[in-house]
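Lab notes, practical 5.
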Amino acid sequence: MPDLRTRFQPADRIAAPDLWPDVLTREPGEPPPRSPWGRVTALAIAVGVAALAILVLIRVLPLGSAKPVAPSPTPSSTITPGPTPSPAKLPSAGEVVGTIHFDATILAAADGKLFAIRQDTEKAYTMARIERDGSMTTVRIRDNRSRYIGRIAATSEAVYLGTEVIHRFTNDKDELIRIDANTLKPTAKITLDDNVLGIVASPDSVWVALSDRVLRLDPVTLATRSTFMVPGIAPAPIGPGSVGSLALGWGGLWVVAGNAARSTLYRLDPNSLSALGRASVPGLPDQGFIVSADDQAVWMVYSSGVRKVDPQSGAIRRLIPIQEVTTADARGTGLVAMLGQSSIAQIDSDGRVVALTENLGDIGGSMAVDGQDVWISAGATSILHFVLADVPAGS
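Output from the prediction step:
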């Protein structure tokens, strides 16, 4: 509605006639002469009154189609603003089918089974094997370096554990441990000069990433079969701030080596460990990044999004922004990702989130994917078993 206080301001600029001489000369009872300025003033007032009347009629009378009027808010109908809805509601990524009461620090899955580690004391840990139906077998294992166990990989035959000893506080060496997947008892162990930054396992080989090298080991004895020395990195344990990640998939063995400010993605022959390609890893020092691969796709995963990797050249493509990526595993042509601390998403081959399940509670820390089964550490005392939905447009 127009502001009536300013609507007629232009009329204030019309000069008014001087009527005082006429008053002095006019006889008593004689009507005043009709001045042209008087007619102008009367006309302006009439126009103003007519305009005001029209505004009142438009506001009061139901002319034309009725205009909706918002109801006055009342205490009983006050609506609290909520989050802005997404443009299109995504289908569910899946559902939680079970909760396992086990305080796990790291997880790995293979052949439909979940393997989990619980740190009991500084010198002992519990190894658990959990079936799809939630049944669990546990064995307590004594090890003086149990508090440093931070890496895990599994096959249907064995589980491999790697340590990340804090060398500035102790002279202890790092370890790689093989545990039988059936008995859950250690069957082999080797010492290493530096932290285990990544492990990948298959029935035929085990690959281990240290800060300055990649080892291919026998899957039973853990004897070294071949070695790749990362160019330009000081021998262990001198190199500071090292990052490392391993993935076996389309194109070979994928290795991220370097530090948070400058890292390189290498494509290696899985057997000889000869370099087949390399590419600089785009990113910033405060971004976490890992490589994830399977037999259909290779991805670089950042906390701020994902980048697809060409499996032949190793070229790393543009960043596809996805907020709060906690971790992700390659699955099919896409990814399964944990977003923030309460959501699971399916990401398609174009890097788009095509299915999302939110409000899963306090999840995070570790995730293991095996087919449609996803296990996620939840809080401090349990593991969620999540089954992925079939999403036609997804991975």
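Observations recorded by the TA: The mean pLDDT is 82. Residues 36-60 form the longest helix (25 residues).
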